[in-house]
Amino acid sequence: MNLRTLRWAILAYACFDLFFGGICGGFFPLSPLAAAQFTTVSGTVTDPNGLPYANGTITATLITSASPTLGGFPYTPPTQPTGLNSAGSFVMQLADNTQLSPGGTQWSFKVCSAIATVQPAFGSGPVCFTPAAITISGTSQNITAQLTAAALTLTARNFGKIGVFGSGGSVPLDAALTDFLGIWKSTTEALVSLPMPFAGTLKNLQIHIGSGGGNAGVDYTFTVRQNAASSIITCVISGTTTLVCADTTHSIIVATGDLIDIQCVPTASPNPVNVNWSMELDP
Predict the structure, then answer these.
(1) Which one is the CATH code of 30-150: 2.130.10.10, 3.30.70.260, 2.60.40.10, 3.40.190.10?
(2) Four-residue CA torsion sign, 124, 128, 133, 134
(3) Residue 224 phi, psi dihedral angles, 5° rounding
(4) Which fold has domain 162-282?
(5) pLDDT digits (tens, 9 = 90+) for 84-93
(6) Model-level pTM?
């Protein structure tokens, strides 16, 4: 090939690459073919208690038996982690396993929590997990189910049970109105409901009122409320001398963030009294 012919060949190749894309992109890129080779992978990572892996990372690793090619060209898989947002969600672009050679490739994902995803003393510190390898294909694929099924808990399990408690404060129970008890009392439930710090079993209700009690034949009925609905945990203080009641039989399952308070319903205008309450939360 003489020099003139070589120049024309180079010019023709440059024009094709500029206008029609080739493998480098151009004014008219061959995007449908290129897009078909990649999958938009998304998901949200939460632990068994529903806590998100907020601000953690997810790293994709290609499992292959030989150097991979995509569309006839060498393919270099990603090596850097992708960040998870505050909800534990992510989006990334990965090569479609059905378009890669050799056949039978899959993607492996390693998820790691951030250092302070859950603060001490409840947090277990940074944790990482790797679910079973996943075949990625198609235009888009959500892998939330696979990730969540393999996720490790973000809360420490060595702190055991804790106490949840509150009172009516310095203001006595109302003798005619329904009160709600949190750290203090109110006739408006939303003002006193306590969010649960982690998922678990809430049980062992204990109530203590101040001296003065009720009147003969009248009482206060205490009921644990979960997300503004009455639960099966309840006890009654009645008469003039009884100062305590308890329900050690019933329990409820709570999720992280569930709102808990104690409803107090008076009967027949008992004497106003102060009140304290406590319960046990087992993780």
Answers:
(1) 2.60.40.10
(2) positive
(3) -75, 135
(4) Jelly Rolls (2.60.120)
(5) 998 999 999 9
(6) 0.48
